[in-house]
Write a structure and sequence with these properties.
- By secondary structure, this protein is mostly helical.
- The protein has one domain: Helix Hairpins.
- The chain contains three helices and no strands.
- It has helices at about 5-25, 30-55, 60-90.
- The longest helix is centred in the last third of the chain and has 31 residues, at about 60-90.
- The N and C termini lie far apart (about 60 Å).
- The mean pLDDT is about 90.
């Protein structure tokens, strides 16, 4: 059995769907960040798959590398924000942190 573009797209769609589900249904900020990471990984799979099967050379790999660097920076900054929010409000639930408006 040969692995085709369809297989990559199915895996990417599943990861993207799980990421959206994690963002929409979770109240915990850490779980929302994990959902964002799943979405970014789904896009990486698409970049690599279309680069491989579309004969685009190394452009897909370069975009995936850029997304990985972006995800690492996002995770570091977002975790610092979540730690500061926890220190201030002793809670990381996204729905319950509405005191930031005041």
């Amino acid at each position: 059995m040969e692995v085709t573009l369809t297989h990559f797209l199915i895996v990417s769609t599943l990861l993207f769907s799980l990421g959206i589900y994690g963002i929409v249904t979770r109240k915990n900020a850490i779980m929302v960040l994990m959902g964002i990471e799943l979405i970014l990984n789904a896009s990486n799979i698409n970049f690599i798959a279309f680069s491989r099967f579309g004969n685009f050379g190394l452009q897909g790999q370069l975009f995936a590398l850029f997304v990985i660097v972006l995800a690492a920076a996002e995770a570091a900054i977002a975790l610092a924000i979540v730690l500061n929010v926890y220190k201030t409000f002793v809670n990381v639930n996204v729905d319950e942190i509405d005191e930031l408006r005041d």
